[in-house]
């Protein structure tokens, strides 16, 4: 049986660190994240976007992660990341998933509230926790492409209102990060984060952490971020290592060989990101 992310994030909030949420895609990436988290004794969130669920199958993902939860001593959860389809979310909750993000950030405030509230009501009956987003990140995540001009930062007063109206468990805020990498170094709006934190008491989530300097992420954590999402910076070393392996071994065909350096390269980044989140030894 899986846990929600509620207690995990509240503990992080109280103790001033963030739980890293790593986007996984298959058995290998799940193994890498869990190995690194176990080695560093860090709580960890395994996040799956809609295209990952489609690619890997929700039943297989749940089976693998439920088994992992049974045999691992670190706190771990399976989290649906950036899901927009209410029916999909509800179905996967009934199958045993205890942590979901309903992303209705593309809608105006009232519609966002309405969509999120419906998921919160459903999820809480199953003991599942819900993350929502207010404001909108730019960049590319999955099939989701948001033009920089269409992105906007979270309004602190609206955030307070949003949390009250929806009863959501954690809030993803838009404070200057974007999904994917950056053309130039991102500048985070820490004043805005301070204002949001002063008004909103639930755990705050930072999306788009790939490409954000270590110090900026840690500053955001010091100012109240307690979940940090990382996707792109894991995919890159994994695929680069495979490319390198094949360039040196063009006749290779055994995944048990060519995936080994990929897993190692990804492992090193997961370790670095756990340290960035200050979640080492918090399991
Ligand atoms: P990055 O791809 O920038 O790491 O963003 C990850 C994310 O926000 C997943 O929800
Ligand atoms: Zn995201
Ligand atoms: Na990013």
UniProtKB/TrEMBL annotation:
Biological process (GO) annotations held by this record are: carbohydrate metabolic process
Catalytic-site annotation from UniProt: 81
Superkingdom field: Bacteria
Q: Which InterPro entries match?
A: Aldolase_TIM, Class_II_FBP_aldolase, FBA_II
Residues recorded as binding Zn(2+) 2, renumbered to this chain, are 103, 133
Tell me the CDD domains matching this sequence.
Answer: TBP_aldolase_IIB (cd00947)
| Species assigned in the record | Romboutsia lituseburensis DSM 797
Give the required cofactors. Answer: Zn(2+)
Locate the residues binding dihydroxyacetone phosphate: 180, 208-210, 229-232
The residues listed in the UniProt record as binding Zn(2+) 1, with positions renumbered to this chain, are: 82, 179, 207
Cofactor binding summary note: Binds 2 Zn(2+) ions per subunit. One is catalytic and the other provides a structural contribution.
- Write the protein's name: D-tagatose-bisphosphate aldolase class II
Give any Pfam family that matches: F_bP_aldolase
User: Which UniProt key words apply to this protein?
Assistant: Metal-binding, Zinc
**Gene Ontology MF, one:** tagatose-bisphosphate aldolase activity
Keyword Chaperone listed? The answer is: no
Q: Coiled coil where? A: none
